[in-house]
Amino acid sequence: MKSYKICVLIIALIISLFGCEQTTPISDDFSFYTPSEEKTSFPLVPEGPVKNVILMIGDGMGLTHITAARTIVLGAHGRLTIERLPVTGIIDHYAADEFVSGSAATATSLATGYKTSGDMIGLLPDGTPALTILEAARDRGMSTGLVATLTITHATPAAFGAHIHDRDLEAEIAVQLLESKVNVLFGGGRALFRPGVSGYKFTRTDDRDLTKEAQSAGYEYVETRDALMAAEAENDYLLGLFNDGLMLIQDPEPTLAEMTDKALEILSRNENGFFLMVEGSQIDWGAEDNDINYTIRELLHFDLAIRSAIHYALNNKETLVVVTSDHEAGGMFIPEGPPNQLDGNISIGWGTDGHTGTPVPVFAYGPHAERFMGWYDNTEIPKKIANILGIYDFPRKILVK
Ligand SMILES: [Zn+2]
């Protein structure tokens, strides 16, 4: 066989192994997603003071994930809520020592304004702790919140309220999140807060019951959607753990949008304002599984949570909403495919079962949203937020006593 034919065969084999197109039947019921007829962008808001910041992170979300979700539920001509934010930008998300990294490093950059490496949470590569934008907001008297659909102790929320060298030490991260006095903590992960609870890859190995400790410290504690809805959080502290491990977003759990609404209700009581981070945590998991239905379902739940945030910001003019991603996952693409792709009959290709280094989008709405235009680094996100809030000693390392 001539050498060029061998080359062609090898290339074809590589493509079939690593760049596979997939025409997965789109079978999931996305009827929970209530489409909006509106397609036009939300308006630019005149410059003015910003009291509240809602940072929303679609874990693993790239442009293709958004485009595919829109096309499947609305057709190519539609617009999801995320696509209607008036300002768009692009961020790079490489880590201190590698181009494609995990969520610990990328979330640490989004939280602290510094690059880091490996599985570091809220630490620089040499182990020095860095202040997070949530802690900076808390230290100036603002209320704070973290909402996620994986465990509330996994990498992304952890990077905003904990400092630890290994993202897998979730039982210790649970302790740190409570010590950080984050007002609102909603997600999965009861196994990290209570002894003897299984159903997740990590458990508490000591006998501390952090749900009891939290209540002693002033938190109200809930485990179901109904309890969440009824919670009054008189002390402005609410811990909601809705699954032993990651959330399934089905009865008796609340949706991401419902958790966002409740967080906003509690945090908005503070006249000094608030910082809230909401994560669409499992877009990443769907993409790493190369599972189009899982990916789209999670992205649509995230979009409904964005709608909640925008609804709040439209009524509360001093609120800035920034939506972005930590990295792309799955190397997702839309190849030439079957007929009627414009109507949602799309085929999806996947390049990897991991993360990619492709830059990811930023969307912003509210006063000073224009500052998020352009192409910049992920470390700029918390720096821009700090500057807009009038926090000028940021980013900075935490002096260890
Ligand atoms: Zn991630």
Instruction: Give Rg in angstroms.
Output: 21 Å
3D shape: globular
Largest sheet: 10 strands, mixed
CATH A-level architecture: 3-Layer(aba) Sandwich
Unreliably modeled segments:
11-18
What share of residues is helical? Answer: 25-40%
Between the first and last Cα atoms, what is the distance in angstroms? 70 Å
Structure description:
- This protein is α/β, with parallel strands linked by helices.
- It has 13 helices and 14 strands.
- The chain has helices at residues 3-18, 63-74, 103-112, 133-139, 155-161, 170-179, 190-193, 210-216, 225-230, 256-267, 283-288, 292-315, 380-389; strands at residues 21-22, 52-58, 87-92, 143-151, 184-188, 220-222, 238-241, 274-280, 319-325, 328-329, 348-349, 355-356, 360-365, 374-377.
- Helix 2 (63-74) packs across helix 12 (292-315), helix 3 packs parallel to helix 13 and helix 10 (256-267) runs parallel beside helix 12.
- Zinc ion binds at residues 59-60, 103, 284, 326-327.
What distinguishing features does this structure have?
alpha/beta; Alkaline Phosphatase, subunit A; ten-stranded mixed β-sheet; two-stranded antiparallel ribbon; binds zinc ion
Which helices and strands appear, and what pairs or packs with what?
Layout: H1 3-18, E1 21-22, E2 52-58, H2 63-74, E3 87-92, H3 103-112, H4 133-139, E4 143-151, H5 155-161, H6 170-179, E5 184-188, H7 190-193, H8 210-216, E6 220-222, H9 225-230, E7 238-241, H10 256-267, E8 274-280, H11 283-288, H12 292-315, E9 319-325, E10 328-329, E11 348-349, E12 355-356, E13 360-365, E14 374-377, H13 380-389
Parallel strand pairs: 2-8, 2-9, 3-14, 4-5, 4-8, 5-7, 6-7
Antiparallel strand pairs: 1-11, 3-13, 9-13, 10-12
Helix pairs in contact: 2-12, 3-5, 3-13, 10-12
The structure holds zinc ion (ZN).
